[in-house]
Amino acid sequence: MAETEQALKPSQRKLLQALASEEFREAGASFTELWKTAEVSDKTATHTLPWLVERGYAQHIKKGDPYFITELGEEALGEEPTFLPQPILEE
Predict the structure, then answer these.
(1) Which domains does the chain have, with CATH numbers?
(2) Beta-strand (E) ranges in the chain?
(3) Quick check: 82 pLDDT over 80?
(4) Burial class for 53, CB neighbours closer than 10 Å (0-12, 13-18, 19+)
(5) The overall pTM is greater than 0.70
(6) Is 87 helix (H, G, I), strand (E, B) or coil?
C-alpha cells in the first residue's frame, strides 16, 4: 500500500472516489453533488475539500466552480489517470 493511500482518511477517500466516478470525471462536481454522492456531511466536506485541493488531490478554482480529481488524487486511490481537465493557456 502506498504511503499516500495510507494517509487518506475515510472521508477524504470517499470524496476522491466520488470525484473519480464516471459521473463527475469530465464535468466535475458541485459542492452539493460531491458531498451527497460521497455520503459525507456537508460540514465534513466543507473541512475536507480544501485539504484535498491544497495538497493537489483535487482541483477547484473559485466558489461556484466544479471540483475535479487530479492525477495525484487518482494515484492516491490507486487508479490510472484517465481524463484530466486541461487548463486553458492564454498566449
Answers:
(1) 3-77 (1.10.10.10)
(2) 58-59, 68-69
(3) no
(4) middle
(5) yes
(6) coil
